[in-house]
Amino acid sequence: MQSAAAAPAKPTAAPSEDPGPALDRRPVLRWLLAFGACLLATLAVFGPALRADFLNFDDDRTILHPRSVDLATGVSAPAFDSDPVATHGRILDPDRAIAEVWAPVTQLSLYFDWWVSGRRLTYAGRTFRRPTPLWPHLHNLLLHALAGSLLALLLLELGLSLPLALLATLPFLLHPAQAEVVAWVSSRKDLLAVVFSLLALRHGCRVVAGKASAWPVWAFTALAVASKGSALVLPLVAPLLWLLPGPAERGPEGRRARFLLCWLPMVGLCGLAFLQQARLAQAFGTAAAGDVAVVPGTMLHYLGTLVWPTGLAVHHPLDLRPALAADALAKAAWLAVPLVGAVLLLLRGARPARLAGAGVLFVVLALLPFNGWLPATSVAAADRYLYLPMLGTALLLAGLLSLVPRTRLVPVAAGAAAVLALALGLPAHDRGLDFADSERLWKASLAVHPGDAVALYNLADVHLSRAEELGEGRTAEIEEGLRLLAEAAPRAVRPEHAVRVHEARFLWLRRLGRLKEALPEAEARLEAVRRLPGGGGPLALAAGVDLVELALLAAEPERAREVLAELRARHGDAAALLALDAWLALSRGGRARSDRPGRPWRRPSRAASPVPSSCSPRPGWPSSRTAASTPHACSRPSSTSSTRTHATSSSSRRPR
């Protein structure tokens, strides 16, 4: 018999040219889908911010009238102008600071807004730009949506599907505490720091997995720390993500070497940024430490705000410090409970549990720069400090969602999305409305902290600035502003705060011709200036000269002689004192002339004209990162003499 026929051979494919590796468009499509979803959520919740105005809370110092201060001489100059080469030079120069910080990435971003949205105006023969608020607020919203999409892509690298990654991103996108960052132009630094931090963390995951080269991680780290100093925690939080796989999931060989290749340069870059931050703190007198007892209470305050976002305010005064420092040991014990649990989950748990543990540790580690102890900030807490730690909530939620069985994942995910959208989105929308204008912002802050001197001062500034622009009805605005200042005066316990309050009342009352009422304010101002570090220096001399002049104008020659004798004993034969001595001798005890030659008159509040002068008064409470007073070449709107040093000043700075 004939044997069975052999199976026919498979036809061979015709030879063809290799088309080469195809371009994988899936990552781009996933990012576009994630960005579109995050942008829709951002616009739905924070869209009203597009109609918001600039605020009298640092916006004048960061985008409207920013000034660049030379650290060596203390001389300041306008930071932004129409010459982009010179402006870039001032921004990138590490020996200069804008608003007491060196954050070139943030300042270049704000300069871009200033250039793009600025309207060319001409006043008194000068042509200048004044930015409009629409584009800077739109820029903030786009950056927030970009940060959300990058967070979703990071979760994809950690093994989640795109729908679950977007769901885990919802707390970051919609938390009410995020409104302060998204709706406030001056908080651009938080947005940029988080965007570049997410890029560094995601790309680091790819490098450790052997999918990419390491140099972009270094570049993104440098951009993050050049946006805001809070990104200095990157070397602490990066190992939580890059070393997340357990012993059975070590991946390809060389993982540890690739981790060190990313992590060690990151440590070096953050170390250099820390040295620059310390240099600035030394130059501006902000390298101070507070009470270590406030650390547990401060950390629990932030964790409580993450879980239950009530009592949000743009300024939490130092009056809260005693409550935060109370029962420090008990609060430390409570804080240790989630930390120990998170460490155990990270080391011993399954992958979803490790992801949840990494999320808790991420939140705590990212809060370390805002512990309230070192550096000693001039506020008890700030909602905007939660922007970077909020990334940990996405990791925590991702770990919890990974524990849900697949058969129940869809209904659980849909229910979670609905609950988060309602529980977070609606309060976040209402909180964003508080940033529509300065008056609404400070009224909302006073609703939470009724006796806050900073909020009272800034709300008074709103009324007094409006009085500059009104014809009819200006008297009511002035009286309301003066009433708020009088209410703030006894609550201004810090000397720099007291200086600002009494100075504003003194200048306005003198301008209104109410000299008898202005005299006690000038005396209180001088006492507050002398309580500044170093006794006030030239500022005390200037405040004393103002007091002598006011006493002469108010027909109080005896009081003028007493103050002048005291000033001569303290400051010697200063030129201003010799001139006052001659003026006092000429007055012969009578009423002094109000038009003394050589005595410039400056407005006590922001001018109605949009033109920023080289030494115009800054609206709003001066900003501060620490408890020390802020030096500024133009910090006093109506002083007799100004100082070019940044050793002392009558103003304080808001924390950033």
What does it look like?
By secondary structure, this protein is mainly alpha-helical. It has 25 helices and five strands. β1 and β2 form a beta hairpin. α8 (188-208) runs antiparallel to α9.
Task: Label the structural class.
Answer: mainly alpha
Q: How large is the share of residues in beta strands?
A: under 5%
Q: What gross morphology would you assign?
A: elongated
Whole-number mean pLDDT: 84
Radius of gyration: 29 Å
Strand order of the largest sheet: 2-1-3
Low-confidence stretches: 1-6, 13-23, 246-250, 589-656
| Distance between the ends | 95 Å
The largest pleated sheet is described as: 3 strands, antiparallel
Task: Return the string of H and E elements.
Answer: HHEEHEHEEHHHHHHHHHHHHHHHHHHHHH
Count every helix, treating DSSP H or I runs of 4 or more residues as helices: 25
What share of residues is helical?
55-70%
Number of strands: 5
Structural descriptors:
single chain; 656 residues; mainly alpha; three-stranded antiparallel β-sheet; 58% helix; elongated; disordered N terminus; disordered C terminus
Helix and strand topology:
Layout: H1 26-46, H2 59-64, E1 67-70, E2 76-78, H3 84-92, E3 96-98, H4 104-117, E4 118-123, E5 126-131, H5 134-157, H6 162-174, H7 179-183, H8 188-208, H9 215-225, H10 234-242, H11 255-283, H12 294-307, H13 321-325, H14 328-348, H15 351-366, H16 391-402, H17 406-433, H18 438-448, H19 453-469, H20 474-488, H21 495-511, H22 515-530, H23 538-553, H24 557-571, H25 575-587
Antiparallel strand pairs: 1-2, 1-3, 4-5
Helix pairs in contact: 1-5, 1-6, 3-4, 4-5, 5-6, 5-8, 6-16, 6-17, 8-9, 8-10, 9-11, 10-11, 10-15, 12-14, 14-15, 15-16, 18-19, 19-20, 20-21, 21-22, 22-23, 23-24, 23-25, 24-25
